[in-house]
# Entry
Amino acid sequence: MGARKRIKANELKEQNSKIAFAKLNNSPIAPRKMRIVADLIRGMEVHKALNILQHNAKDASVSLEKLLRSALANWEQKNEGKNIEEEKLVVKTIQVDGGAIIKRIQPAPQGRAHRIRKRSNHVTLVVGSLI
# Structure
């Protein structure tokens, strides 16, 4: 490995030591519904975001709360000895992408049929410190 590559790799390792991420694949909630809840917590402090997700009535908030807790556990494991309360952790990025679509057919009058698309999504959540 060349010197420039090694320096760049060390810089990337240093940046990645400050963040942790969690992924949720094939969630059966439609991406549009998941994005509504994801927009509520994007860029927020972690404890505030958990509070919002706990008191939100939408079904997507339950799975996002689990995902956020998973990202926090990943951060704790990555940064041994550091405390979450001392660090100012925020939800740096949260990205909701469309997943697989299950196609079904619903019978309609006069021998017709309507297509039903059951959408799913993939969510990626990145937690990092402000500093």
Q: What stands out?
A: The chain has one domain: 20-129. Strands lie at 19-27, 89-107, 113-129.
